Amino acid sequence: MGRRGVTDAVRGGALLVVGDVITDVVARHRGPLAPGTDTAAAIRTVPGGAGANVACWAARRDGTEVRLLGRVGEDAAAWHERELAACGVRPLLVVDGQAPTGTVICLVDGGAAAERTFLTDSGASLRLGPGDWSDALLDGVARLHLSGYLLFTEPSRALVAVASRAARARGVPVSLDPASRGFLVRLGADRFLSLVEDVDVLLPSRDEACLLTGASDAADAAARLSLRVPLVVAKQGAEGALLARSGEVYARVPAVPAAPRDTTGAGDAFTGAFLAALLAGAGPEQATREGCRAGAQAVEHIGGRPPAPA
């Protein structure tokens, strides 16, 4: 079966996200960390995970049905189900009796850039495997989105292959966000690219795009990636986003001005809003504009999920 256009989908269908569900412990500190002693910080525990965050931001758009397949430990399963449902996401969580829910310590510099550093214990999230998949999960689904974190362990890599094949057989477009430059370094660019051959839309950050191609320029990197994936949307933070296909960057979308407090989840917000817009019938450029707006909203509050309605 040939690839469908990246905006082709079953109108009125759902978005199925497969990915990580994580407990985030966010510590905002000002100035450098003080080794061997105390550093004052404002600390909060919030629900997170790249896959879960994408689902929540997508569900924020009225009329968008979003489902999430993920794996959590018994310790926090009920809490995560409640938090996802509160965001309008239908949780399809596998409860792992042997591993705890994944936890990420997010160290956020309280300065102007609000840059963050992650300490990650993936826990149950990367134990998601082919046994957790059923082709029936695609019933009524118009798009499948895969978190790139799934490519970093063997069981979840196998799940990606099974889910992608099932989606391809049904003509369901597949998107993927590379998710982590650090893990990409360990996996290797060549291996990553061999694992995403069936993806229709790739949504890397600027650093991820450059790492995957060896290019130093984001536009060049996006153009090169688009020779392998039909549509590449390269997220560039405060510089907006680039769209590339067939070896050329064909659109540049500016960022929406924002006053950053915490950049955790900004890329997830972009991806969720982008995919929801595609589902609603928007073209890639309009969907990218909506992604940029969501990214700006994300950095102005703490945590990777959408802010609660006022």
TrEMBL record:
Signal peptide feature range: none
Q: What class of enzyme is it?
A: transferase
- Extract the coiled-coil ranges from the record: none
Enzyme Commission number: 2.7.1.-
> Residues in domain Carbohydrate kinase PfkB?
15-309
State the UniProt keywords alphabetically: Kinase, Transferase
Under Pfam families, the record lists:
PfkB
Q: Does the keyword rRNA-binding apply?
A: no
Q: What molecular functions are annotated in GO for this chain?
A: kinase activity
Record-stated family? Belongs to the carbohydrate kinase PfkB family.
Q: What is this protein called?
A: Carbohydrate kinase family protein
